[in-house]
Amino acid sequence: xxxxxxxxxxxxxxxxxxxxxxxxxxxxxxxxxxxxxxxxxxxxxxxxxxxxxxxxxxxxxxxxxxxxxxxxxxxxxxxxxxxxxxxxxxxxxxxxxxxxxxxxxxxxxxxxxxxxxxxxxxxxxxxxxxxxxxxxxxxxxxxxxxxxxxxxxxxxxxxxxxxxxxxxxxxxxxxxxxxxxxxxxxxxxxxxxxxxxxxxxxxxxxxxxxxxxxxxxxxxxxxxxxxxxxxxxxxxxxxxxxxxxxxxxxxxxxxxxxxxxxxxxxxxxxxxxxxxxxxxxxxxxxxxxxxxxxxxxxxxxxxxxxxxxxxxxxxxxxxxxxxxxxxxxxxxxxxxxxxxxxxxxxxxxxxxxxxxxxxxxxxxxxxxxxxxxxxxxxxxxxxxxxxxxxxxxxxxxxxxxxxxxxxxxxxxxxxxxxxxxxxx
Length: 424
Known about the structure:
The protein is of the alpha+beta class. It is 40% helix and 21% strand.
């Protein structure tokens, strides 16, 4: 949510910021409604002063035994006018809020301009796509040949965009999640949290999923929502809170199932488990002091990169362009892994800095060390990483010529020492 004081201070700059997102100017409309609202409030203040004067005068006349009916009638008329002004101010408040909550975050100045992912910029690459010495297969071909990845039965049970994993492959996905959680909690300073997978509308609103992206979510009949990512409950843990400055930063992580309707993705990645309605992901969330958030963004992205380095998977860091950056984010780094079977780079983690955009929606603040100053916290979130996509990357990068899959050294403690998933 935007601070209207920023729009009042420089309407042209706000419109320029929205233009980077490909949106038309809205500052004039917002400020026009704001002026009407403030006019209503000014009249209300004046009317309240007048009503107070009426009350005082009526009291004096009554004590003197004089007729007060005319003054009482005028006071009643003034009260009715005040009710009209209150409704007018409230309606303009509602209209302003509806506009502000529909507008995305202001992008950082160093976010590259561009309409979509074609304008994203690769910042660095770690590891080189290597020749496996044979024709590599994609994850779904590998999984089906092993008899451990079953799309047909999943479709019978739930429909398309679901997958059943069996035996060692199911264990490998579980191992990935446990490895990431232990890495982030033991080495990166995150606190492990177990969160609800169903949340209410206020929680979805707090992180920016509602009202704009309702069609991307699964909604229950009792007005709850299946989480699209653990970012939603983790970040909202501080909704409405006033934190002590010395408590910052808070670093939280969770491994959860995530649920997305994939609205608008018809025909994209229909084979395999790249784009699923249900998938697992380790999420990292940081709640920080505004002066710490830039450094925290770099730190968080480095934590996700460490996962890929230990898995020995080539990856690259990409900064998303203006047209590809998410609604709530001011800046996003994507980590992309090389998939030799598909012969392409695919996103496996997004690490975003939201600044105070979510905090203002959630009313999440901190009290400065002086004991007086209150300010909005900054929030960040990142995949640390998506276990399903990590499974795909491990399968394709560590596949062997005979169809077996070598288990990365770092995962073997969670695989009972297994070094290889044998070919069927």
